[in-house]
Amino acid sequence: MRVRSPKVAVVGAGAVGSSLAYAALIKGVARHVVLHDINIGKVRAEALDMAHGSQFFPQATVEGSDDVEITRDSDVVVVTAGAKQRPGETRMDLAQSTVNLMRKVIPPLVERSPNAIFILVTNPVDVTTYAALKISGLPPNQLFGSGTVLDSSRLRFLVAQRCGVAVRNVHAYILGEHGDSQIPIWSSATIGGVPLLEWERQTGMLGESVRDGIAEEVVNAAYEVIAGKGATNHAIGLAGTEIIEAVLRDEHRVMPVSALLDDWYGIKDVCMAVPSVVDRRGVGRNLRQPLQDGELGALHDSAQIIRATLTELGF
């Protein structure tokens, strides 16, 4: 009998979608990758360009179409389609037009792949994820957003760069909104198993002013990249692929994805990034890591910012 290969559908063949599909192919995460976009010329060209290099990545099939039918029976559906963020524009500025787009995009995808795990990458991702959950009618474990997986990677990169260690030896999270109100959780961060605040006491490398500068740089990272080249795509493509991998390989990996919260430190009925277990069933339990009072208060504030936008949008 022929064993069915995992199928990943990427909705949106723009900078983010094409980079994510490319990363998934290069890493061998899925044997069947399909791209869907309303721009038929663009989506076919992106798929063909990747297929031409198929000799150089693990055995896989890649296809592109403007017909949503190509997504049928996917195991994972990643939604990257949305309004493009322009220089100087915040992620929240995109909310209204993006949510309106989700009303059109989500139902036909769910109809064709009702058992798929849906991952939202479209900004503002926390607002979009909550809206997509309501539009789709799917259970909360089955649809979640990319959250601050990328922001946390940026944080770890900057800490590693400052301290002269490998980025894989830095463990630190950005939580809350994937946006301007995001919070670096310094109290539980570690470098090679050494608490980051203890590292500061030993080396003097990560004083409060340095940490504040790093946090600001993480918040502004996307704006800097967008100003320079028009879009962020490579890093989010890699981050999205990590999430897909955790799902398809049932890794039970802890990741700061944007999931619907139900009384996480008193925060409820909002989607935002907290450490959560990601596996074949989607997003599972949310972990309650120890937080300092200032961190917890800031996370409540971040949740209120997301909730305010949702209220303005009628959710």
From TrEMBL:
Lactate/malate dehydrogenase N-terminal domain span: 7-145
Pathway involvement of the protein, from the record: Fermentation; pyruvate fermentation to lactate; (S)-lactate from pyruvate: step 1/1
Example of a GO biological process term: glycolytic process
Family annotation (Pfam families): Ldh_1_C, Ldh_1_N
Residues reported to bind beta-D-fructose 1,6-bisphosphate: 156, 171
Enzyme Commission code: 1.1.1.27
InterPro entries: L-lactate/malate_DH, L-lactate_DH, L-lactate_DH_AS, Lactate/malate_DH_C, Lactate/malate_DH_N, Lactate_DH/Glyco_Ohase_4_C, NAD(P)-bd_dom_sf
Listed GO MF terms: L-lactate dehydrogenase (NAD+) activity
Domain named Lactate/malate dehydrogenase C-terminal: residues: 148-311
Binding site residues for substrate: 85, 91, 123-126, 151-154, 232
Top EC class of this enzyme: oxidoreductase
Active-site positions on this chain: 178
Residues that, per the record, bind NAD(+): 12-17, 37, 42, 82-83, 121-123, 146
Activity: how regulated: Allosterically activated by fructose 1,6-bisphosphate (FBP).
Keyword terms of this UniProt record: Allosteric enzyme, Cytoplasm, NAD, Oxidoreductase, Phosphoprotein
Localization (cell): Cytoplasm
A GO cellular-component term linked to this record: cytoplasm
Function summary: Catalyzes the conversion of lactate to pyruvate.
Assembly information from the UniProt record: Homotetramer.
Record family assignment: Belongs to the LDH/MDH superfamily. LDH family.
Annotated protein name in UniProt: L-lactate dehydrogenase
Organism: Tessaracoccus rhinocerotis
Gene giving rise to this polypeptide: ldh
